[in-house]
Amino acid sequence: MASDREDFTLCGPSHLTNFDWANENHQRCVAACLVQGIYIVERDRQLKREGSEALASPWWDFFNFKLIRHLVDDADFSIFGGIYEFKPPQDTTTTTTVVDSGVPRYVLAFRGTLTKPDSISRDLELDIHIIRNGLHKTSRFEIAMQAVRSMASSSSGASSLWLTGHSMGAAMALLAGKTLAKTGVYIRSSLFNPPFVSPPIERIANERVRSGIRIAGSIVTAGLALSRTLKQAQQQQNQQQEVKQQNLSEDTIKALSLWLPEIHVNPGDHLCSEYIGFFEHRGTMEQFGYGAGFVERMAMNHSLGGLLMDAMGVSNAVEVDEPVHVIPSGKLIVNRTNSEDYKEAHGIHQWWRDDQDLVSHIYLFK
């Protein structure tokens, strides 16, 4: 039996009777609904809902999109993503206001974990890869990355392309966008509840305690990273090659800092709420001076868990470098509306509702 949350007529954004592409709130609703469409198209597949019984298409038809391709996992054959194409309405009396600069021609959307028998095993496997900073090594991400590269290099180009995803799908979209941003290709990205692999420090009530833990974590991480770097430098025979690699790293960070993904989080969702403290802490460390900014920059590029494992001689437990969730710049959108429980705080449905208390702040890497 279908859940009411799968039915667009029951829980979709019915308030959008006059859609405006220049409105950021409307853009957010579109991105969230297209992600929901991927969730539902996979549920349609699992439950063998076809024709009039299928529930997925209204989630994109309402916004004049067409799902032109499914992205299918090569292990369990589940649909984990899709490519949408915008199809402008032919009727000039439509209530949709089209602004050329705000309309994507294509949108790549990725769903999160589905706790259903046909997909839960593979999805949980991917979740573990995210925890270990190993998402980039999975075949699902390779399929997603190939699709993103193909669309970004097409005749329409990256400027008319959006990336979006929820939870695990947000991590996938984030990694794909991050990979291209390092090469100077920047894609508009709307990420909903992306996982931040870290203890839930943001849930600690005392602000001083939170700040102290983060500062200590940055110092420990930077120290371990510096120790590892010096050890590697001693083992290198070609000093010139080492300098070249360091310069390349700096150039990569500069290129990545120009990308401004939209990170949507809820303080009640411990899987993503640490983004709030992450960006605030970055600013605090820069203000301290006396080398604190350098410490934070070094810490930002490494995984504390991976460095600890590496220092203890445990290899391949957790990737050391570049955690997926760490980005230099970003637009953080926080939903301050009280959630009844974790399920509501983590859900995709909150992001198309019109009764939410949202605040946003742009953080730029300097």
TrEMBL record:
Alphabetized UniProt keyword annotations: Hydrolase
UniProt cross-references to SUPFAM superfamilies, sorted A to Z: alpha/beta-Hydrolases
Gene Ontology MF term list: hydrolase activity
One of the Pfam families matching this protein, by short name: Lipase_3
Keyword field contains Hydrolase: yes
GO biological process: lipid metabolic process
Record-annotated Fungal lipase-type domain positions: 147-185
Gene3D superfamilies documented for this protein: alpha/beta hydrolase
The protein, known as: Fungal lipase-type domain-containing protein
Organism: Thlaspi arvense
